[in-house]
Structure formats: structure tokens, C-alpha cells
Amino acid sequence: MDKQTHHSPAIVLDNAAISRGGHTIWSHGNFSIPTASVTAIVGTNGAGKTSLLKAELGLLASSSGSIEVLGQPAGKAKAKIGYVPQSYSNQDDVNLTVEQSVLLGINGNRFGIHPTRVSERGQARRAMSLTGIEDRAAARLGELSGGLRQRAAIAQALASDPELLILDEPLANLDLASQRECVQVLSNLNHELGMTIQIVAHDLNVLLPILTGAVYILDGRPHYANIHDVMNSDLLTQLYGTPVEVVTTPQGNMFISPHAGGSKPKEQNLHTRSRNCQQ
Ligand SMILES: Nc1ncnc2c1ncn2[C@@H]1O[C@H](COP(=O)(O)OP(=O)(O)OP(=O)(O)O)[C@@H](O)[C@H]1O
Question: Cα of 48 to ligand 1 centre, how many Å?
Fold first, then answer.
């Protein structure tokens, strides 16, 4: 298969901007995201995180500049991207078995009734095995817990053997154990298959062990930095618009916590700083 080499970036934004309904959502997007990275996309509600994903998928054209994905203009590499949309709760799907739903990730674009090929069933089995739900292949989606259902959604996105996996808020509404199981699945995909992963997330803590970088949308501009540069109390306070603190445990684990003092966010121009983080 024509996999990207680790030397070429997975995503490149060159002075990219996105407009919706006649309004600029964000602009001046200038960064590269490495292949085989795990990147969070963070920003306040309405900052334009989903819009970035849609632009990468070619569902939304950039209003200026360019967006390249897996070495091609956005939209051209669609077949190499697995996409798990926000709130995977399509009520029409509850009667499908897990296997049928995963098969839709392979043949969902083919019109009409057609027999499932042996090779397609093999692909579906591999996707279910990668997400640890092979033993639930015959279960109906409606019978599954939220966590298993999210893993079935990830399996559907994996069924076409993508190089880039994009997930929009995959951990929302999951309990902590299910969140950790999903994160473990993503970790395995990244470590064992070298898959590039992008995750829109509001809470970074559960993802931190696997994140290599983050795109953060601040003041109408998307920035990319490695995760250690993003784990900065001032930057996160500015980003979340509420005081937060980065805490490091004696074991070296970092996490984000509400600022104990609850003081107002410090006013400072982080654009100077974030320019230094651009890669
Ligand atoms: N179809 C549309 N037409 C016009 N404006 C839109 C459309 N969809 C979204 N928007 C606007 O674009 C902006 C960015 O939306 P987007 O969904 O990308 O933000 P987001 O960061 O993903 O938000 P959230 O965290 O709430 O999911 C918002 O102001 C939203 O109202």
C-alpha cells in the first residue's frame, strides 16, 4: 500500500482560512502535522474545530490559502481517511449488527443490494479485532453500551484501512473506564500501525498519555504545537477562558486542573509565544 513515509507531514496548512455563512471562522492557518502523530484539536465552542476536520475531508473548501492532506489537496485523499463523526447515535442503525455496521464503512457507498465479498468480511473482522469488539460481531448496536458503540463506530471508520483517523469528540458522554478503553484502542493503532490520529476534545486529561501535539484555535487562528508546549498554564487559561493549572505528579504525569485560587485569567499576548511554537 502507498503509505506516507514518516518524513512527509500528514497535514499542511498554508495560510488557510475557513468561512461559513459569509463569516470568517478562522484564518492564517500555517502549520504542518507530522505523520504518525496523535493530535488533539482544542478550542472553545464554535471556534471552528469541526470546520477544520470538514476542511481536511474536503467537505468544506478553504476560503483562502490551501490545506494538504496525505500529500494531496484536501478532498483528494478522502479514501485514505477514516472519520468518526460527533455523537455517533444514529437511531436508524440500532437494529444493525456490529458486523453489518462495520461493513458499511467498506461498501456503504455502493448503491443497491449486493452480496458481501469474502475479502470485505475479512476487512471488517480485522477492524473489529483492532477495536477489541470481534466477539460482539453479531450483537445489535442498540444492545451495546456507549463505550462499545463508540468502538464499533471506530471499527467502521477503520474498515477501509485508512492512514489518517479523524475523530470528533469521541470521548464525550463516555464513563471514565470506556474513555480509557477507547484511548487504549487509539494508542494501539498509533503504535502498532503508525496511524496518524486527530481528535477533537474538550478534556485533554484522559488523552494526554497518547498525545504528541495539539492544534489549538485561539483568537480566530489555528496553531499547532507539540504537546509539551501546549501544557502551559497561561496558554490553557487563555484557551479555555477560565483559570487552569498544569500539574505534574512526582511520577512525571501531567494533567490539567482547575486553578486552585480561581483568579482571573492573566491577560497577555500569547500570539507572540504561539508563533514560536509553530512547526
Ligand atoms: N452550516 C453552517 N453555516 C454557517 N455557519 C456555521 C455552519 N456550521 C457551523 N457554523 C458556524 O461556524 C462556527 C464554527 O463551527 P464548528 O462546528 O466548526 O465549531 P466547533 O469548534 O467544532 O464547535 P463545538 O465545540 O461547539 O462543536 C460556529 O460559529 C458555527 O455557528
Answer: 6
Are 254 and 248 within 8 A, CB to CB?
yes
Distance 216 CA to ligand 1 centre (A): 15
State the complex-level ipTM.
Answer: 0.96
Distances (CA, A) of 244 to 136, 213, 237, 263, 269: 40, 19, 5, 10, 17
What are the structural domains of the chain? 11-88+158-277 (3.40.50.300)
DSSP, collapsed to helix, strand or coil, labels residue 63 as: coil
Ligand 1 site: residues with CB under 6 angstroms?
Answer: 20-21, 25, 43, 45-51
Distance 13 CA to ligand 1 centre (A): 19
* Tens digit of each residue's pLDDT (9 = 90 or more) over 205-228: 999 999 999 999 999 999 999 999
Q: Dig out the grid coordinates for 167 from the structure.
A: 475523530
Nearest CA to ligand 1 atom 24: 45
Cα(153)–Cα(207) distance, rounded to whole angstroms? 18
